[in-house]
Amino acid sequence: MAASGSGGSRADNGYGSQQPRRRKGPGALATAYLVIYNVVMTAGWLVIAVGLVRAYLAKGSYHSLYYSIEKPLKFFQTGALLEECLLIAKYLLGIVPSSVVLTAFQVMSRVFLTWAVTHSVKEVQTEDSVLLFVVAWTITEIIRYSFYTFSLLNHLPYLIKWARYTLFIVLYPMGVSGELLTIYAALPFVRQSGLYSISLPNKYNFSFDYYTFLILVMISYIPIFPQLYFHMLHQRRKVLSHTEEHKKSE
């Protein structure tokens, strides 16, 4: 599923400092790399946010703003794969919990939505639903990467922590709605063009219907969305209540 963090916040990815159970932190070199990576990603999503605002002020309309941020969106959303491939490798080594893998696939689904739907089906790029998930993604990622950066530096402001574990309540459904509406809008164009579909007969004796595949992707939101959403609600109660208890004890 693309949201979260595809319009909502994703779960802690193994190098944040908010897990109750202490884990061995990364070394100095790994920490430096992660800080640089998260700073770059924060800056990248800020560029996208500024691009949206500037385009809106110039046009005086929120319609078709996708074109103003298309290139940086593709670059920085695809760049998140570097982070998620590392997480999957850590999971296979038993370093991070299985919930992280679920969120890793969430990022991959975002990349899928960016390239295999919005980029490939040009007709949907003017849909307002695209702006819906782009805005949700942008706000989410600015907060998320800022959260990771300050956590790695051991100077996490409470406001960023609060935003990380609160704004997803609105941003996640907002992003998911935009994603589903965009896929739905793409369906008739995919069916008409036969995009990415493979028909029989062929030498591989294999067929693939991309139209049906997109419908299955939409159906997959039904079991996955509640899991991720309630996981983040659980994380919110655990992290923010722990913070409040810590403040009272000081």
Automatic annotation (TrEMBL):
Tell me, which GO biological process terms does this entry list? fatty acid elongation; sphingolipid biosynthetic process; very long-chain fatty acid biosynthetic process
Residue spans making up a coiled coil are none
Q: Where in the cell is it found?
A: Endoplasmic reticulum membrane; Membrane
- InterPro entries in alphabetical order: Tyr_Pase-like_PTPLA
Q: Pfam families, from UniProt?
A: PTPLA
Q: Which UniProt keywords apply?
A: Endoplasmic reticulum, Fatty acid biosynthesis, Fatty acid metabolism, Lipid biosynthesis, Lipid metabolism, Lyase, Membrane, Transmembrane, Transmembrane helix
Documented EC number(s)? 4.2.1.134
* Presence of keyword Transferase: no
Asked if RNA-binding is a keyword of the record, the answer is no
Which reaction(s) does the protein catalyse, per the Swiss-Prot or TrEMBL entry?
A: (3R)-hydroxyhexadecanoyl-CoA = (2E)-hexadecenoyl-CoA + H2O; a very-long-chain (3R)-3-hydroxyacyl-CoA = a very-long-chain (2E)-enoyl-CoA + H2O
One CC-aspect GO term? endoplasmic reticulum membrane
Stretches for region Disordered = 1-24
- GO terms, molecular function: very-long-chain (3R)-3-hydroxyacyl-CoA dehydratase activity
Transmembrane portions of the chain: 31-55, 100-118, 130-153, 165-190, 210-230
Q: In which pathway does it act?
A: Lipid metabolism; fatty acid biosynthesis
- Membrane topology annotation: Multi-pass membrane protein
Q: What does this protein do?
A: Catalyzes the third of the four reactions of the long-chain fatty acids elongation cycle. This endoplasmic reticulum-bound enzymatic process, allows the addition of two carbons to the chain of long- and very long-chain fatty acids/VLCFAs per cycle. This enzyme catalyzes the dehydration of the 3-hydroxyacyl-CoA intermediate into trans-2,3-enoyl-CoA, within each cycle of fatty acid elongation. Thereby, it participates to the production of VLCFAs of different chain lengths that are involved in multiple biological processes as precursors of membrane lipids and lipid mediators.
Q: Which family does it belong to?
A: Belongs to the very long-chain fatty acids dehydratase HACD family.
Name of the protein this chain belongs to? Very-long-chain (3R)-3-hydroxyacyl-CoA dehydratase
